[in-house]
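Deviation from plan, reported transparently: BES complex.
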Amino acid sequence: MKSRGINKNFTGTKVDALATVVFKDEKVSDEFLKELDDLTSGQISSIIDSKEFKGEKGEVAILRFSADKGKANRLLIIGGGEEEKFGSSDIAIASGTAARKVRDLGLKSYVFAPRKADDAVDAAASSFQGAITSQFELDKYRTVDKNDKEVTSFVIYIADAKPTELKNGLSRGEAIGESMNVTRDLANEPPNILTPTEIANRAKKMAKEVGLKCEVLTEAQMKKLGMNSLLSVSLGSEQPAKLVIFKYTPKKNTGKKGELLALVGKGVMFDTGGISLKPGENMDAMKYDMSGAATVFGTMRAIALLKPSIPVMGVMGCVENMPDGKASRPSDVVTAMNGKTIEILNTDAEGRLVLADAVAYAEKKGATHIVDMATLTGAVVIALGNRNTGIMGNDDDFVNEVIEAGKEVDEGFWQLPLKGYESEVKSDIADVKNIGTKRRAGTIAGGLFIQEFIDKAKWAHLDIAGTAWSDSPKGHQAKGPTGVAIRTLLNLVEKSQ
Ligand code: BES
Ligand code: ZN
Ligand code: ZN
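Because the crystal trials were delayed, the predicted structure below was used instead.
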């Protein structure tokens, strides 16, 4: 999407549509709204006075007016909710809602005025990110009835903002929005196309494009490192497992000496359950079981473009979980990279087996802080639904840092306890078992298991099974992969620099 920034003459912009925000219970009182009200022959006051438009979040009004040739003749008014609470993520949602309406009207360009733009760079970034993420659709593989409408040009309007602020904001918004769409595209890919080998190849290509280091470990290399837990998951698959490692090194490191943050993702390209086979119904959804890895992919891409001043490592554990004569069985025992023995009691609890070796690898390579992301348990969907990601960890201060970073970008994380539940994953015959006891505390059991493979690092585990995929479209976003946690992780990184 093309973009540019302007700081005056909103109504004179050469675009297909104008778009702005009206807040809850707001009247036409400031100069900006008055000018738009005049332009539309009083339609704004009319829809407000008649209570046809209340300024609630999600509301949209499309007003028509006559304009000079080559200029917009439509004004989109987007409800912003309460003005005091209107922040960056609301700006992105409002801009995205406008962009989807503009697209649905068959138009190609719009100018967006977020109005409440305390920080011009941030407001411009959020506005453009919202525009970009709003255009993502699931229909990549359709050859007929494909959505062929698209907004191709975006203009940000912030009165009196400095041109450099607008420019910087736009390139920031582009980096974040496009990286979110990269993550979403990966999560949406069918597993016959996006195999472990294919995601590793795409990782190398992406890393080259944005200037990240990227290394891919083969099964033989993983075997040498003793990663039998991860490798056990893909024994039943024709597809060889891959461990992808990204490295971002800043020009100047302003972080605390010796600290290294690692982002580690579950990349189960498809989860049949293995010998503990899943029921057929909805098994197709398990193509998004690599959303944790896709999140690492997109976040590392954005980091390379935004260039924060701390180093970050990304690790994606990529496997396919299939039933086969060679597949592992419930009751198998394997030894992980850190020497711990695991009794595999359910081959469908495979994500934690992958993460066990992936987090141990990250720590061995110097990570002092680890955040892992995984579509790990169905239980987290039961507990928290799709509004909050489950979070657990071994250090409450670090967990709180992630929660706080999330709050600032309006992504919800809800902490579940690990302390006191340790006995849930004790095995009768090995050091740990890969499921909890009976069906209780399923999400916690997942977290506890991964914790066994962390040595000294501060660690937070994000169970994104409920939040990585949205079953219904929103005004600002298609249904399907959400790109959850990327903005939180970027905020976490930028706050630590
Ligand atoms: N990939 C699933 C978890 C999942 C479920 C993700 C629904 C997204 C939506 C995971 O590998 C799994 O199968 N977990 C089991 C664990 C159980 C066997 C202890 C589950 O949640 O049922
Ligand atoms: Zn599973
Ligand atoms: Zn899984």
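The pocket of zinc ion (ligand 3) is lined by residues 268, 271, 289, 350-351 (CB under 6 Å). We consider this an acceptable substitute for the interim report.
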